[in-house]
Amino acid sequence: MSINQPAVTVQAHQRPWIFDLTAPERSTLVATFAGWALDGMDVMVYSFVIPTVIAAWHISKGQAGLLGTAALLISAVGGWLAGLLADRFGRVRVLQITILWFAFFTFLSGFTNSFWQLLMTRGLQGLGFGGEWAVGSVLMGEAIRAKYRGKAVGTVQGGWAIGWGVTAISYTVLFSVLPAALAWRAMFWIGILPALLVFYIRREVPEPEVFHRTREREAALGQGSRFLEIFSPAMLKTTLLTALLATGVQGGYYAITTWLPTFLKTTRGLSVLNTGGYLFVVIVGSFVGYMVSAWLADRMGRKRTLILFAVCSFLTVTAYTYLSISNQLMLVLGFPLGFFASGSFSPVGAFFTELFPSRLRGSGQGFSYNFGRGIGALFPTLVGYLSARITLGHAISVFAVAAYLVMILAVLLLPETRGKELRVYE
Question: How far apart are CA 286 and CA 251, in angstroms?
């Protein structure tokens, strides 16, 4: 027995961290990963149909950018509202509502017949989209132990790349077999699928224990969630800097991804099939970036990982859009472009969860992340309008680079939180 014991110990230490999660932790991880994948699928649909919508409705690139911005701007309101409701009524209950909401309005977008109709459905979709991340991120941060929080929350971010990949495949297939006038509508119709996830969440995902204990403490003291406390002198610095960080990471990402299919198709002259292939490389890079950054967040710390990925995103997007390179080299550069731009998100959820106290976590995290999304949402519109004066690639690069500089500044001014245990009252 003594001879075999070391081998057993080594084997136990070598097994993946996900097998050490408890059943509630694993169920929460599965549900939020799937939710984020389906969220990504619904949100990224629009980036693929932009050229078709421009041609069908004879709208400008500025108007097309506004359609992209509308969902992101309204998602900021959705995130703030969902964060408030999650602090009051529970993370799991509000998560289900947000998923049903954004699935329904994505589906409805496929029936629109004008710029203004699509603007309305996209805006309403944004309410659910913003709420889903705000609530899901808090739920994951509270449900997972500090030892695995960075990896787990970052892994959930990887679900976005899966959803983006499903959208890219759907785009390639649907636009190859259907007329463009019908294919873009079908892209939105498949967005109803996330609604099915609610059944799993209702059955398998419990509320985090720290949320229950916080609510019991507040009830005993006769207190409730106070949204404005995130702007109190004690919390104001944290609130402002996390909002600035969120602005940088999302502004850079949306400046790149909203216009990338259009850049490849119009500026680089790629076909539908080739555009899908190039995007597939970017998406694979995104998924790997999410996973590696999630691991590094627990290994190196939140701050070092965020700064590393911001600097590399800065350099990669400049090379991808500014340099005169061949299509073959652009295909290769697609991997690091997706890797660093997407990997920048992985530490954010755990970082924000650890920066805000339990009683304000939904409100604080929902406000900061979605304030950043609201400001970052302006970037696709600004890129669209600036592209009328300079090339589309250069316009993308200008706003993405500015965003990553803002992100780096905010991270430098925040404290490191790796390994922090969550307490009921802080």
Answer: 16
